[in-house]
Amino acid sequence: MPGRLLDISGPFIAERIVTELRVHKEGGRILDLGCGKAVNVKVLRGYGYESYGLDLRLAFSPNVRDFCTSATAMKLPFKEGTFDAVTESLMFSQGFEIENWLDAEYRTSLREIKRVLVPNGVMVSSWFQNSGILRATGMSKVHRHALEVGLKPLPSQDREMLVFQRPLE
């Protein structure tokens, strides 16, 4: 499986995530899912966020290994309410962290995201601009399942990002 995972996120997407986060969460603890080589983790840390990464592979560079772990998005190794925000760039659009693109796996991953978020914490999901039908299908799938698990949609500054909030319960 590790041979088929792509690391196509980069500083440009990380900067877009920071721009979106600043609207919803000015600081705090951030978990980046499907972090690959932890580009987003490094950029977020550069902006003062206490960021951590999670990926199926151990491809992290030595300078971020202390902030990254290997696990699946379907079983996050963190306590409830650990993070102020959870980000992912292209993980859901590639479908690799969730194994098979099955609806149940999307729901399980989104339940886990909701669980590790603090009340009023946010999830930012970013997608490719020019991925056409894949982008539209994947974004609608994430949107539908996020609503099913009780995440509340928030307005996004970027048409290529979905933002959800864990409501106060």
- Rg from Cα: 14 Å
Helix content: 25-40%
Largest β sheet strand count, sense and barrel closure: 7 strands, mixed
Widest sheet: strand ordering: 3-2-1-4-5-7-6
What oligomerization state is this entry in?
Answer: single chain
Uncertain stretches of 5 or more adjacent residues? 1-8
CATH class: Alpha Beta
CATH homologous superfamily?
Vaccinia Virus protein VP39
> What is the SS-derived class?
alpha/beta
Topology:
Layout: H1 11-24, E1 29-33, H2 39-46, E2 50-55, E3 68-70, E4 83-89, H3 91-94, H4 103-116, E5 117-126, H5 132-148, E6 152-154, E7 161-165
Parallel strand pairs: 1-2, 1-4, 2-3, 4-5
Antiparallel strand pairs: 5-7, 6-7
Helix pairs in contact: 1-2, 4-5
Which features would summarize this protein structure in a list?
globular, single chain, alpha/beta, 23% strand, disordered N terminus, Rossmann fold, 5 helices, seven-stranded mixed beta sheet, 169 residues
Describe this structure in words.
The chain contains 5 helices and 7 strands. By secondary structure, it is α/β, with parallel strands linked by helices. The chain has a single domain (2-165), classed as Rossmann fold (3-Layer(aba) Sandwich), CATH 3.40.50. It has a 7-stranded mixed sheet with strand order 3-2-1-4-5-7-6. Strand 6 (152-154) and strand 7 form a beta hairpin. Helix 1 (11-24) crosses helix 2 and helix 4 (103-116) packs across helix 5 (132-148). The radius of gyration is 14 Å and the shape is globular. Mean pLDDT is 83; it is low at 1-8.
Describe the structure in brief.
The chain is built from five helices and seven strands; from the N terminus they run H-E-H-E-E-E-H-H-E-H-E-E. With 169 residues, the protein is an alpha/beta fold. It has one domain (2-165): 3-Layer(aba) Sandwich (Rossmann fold).
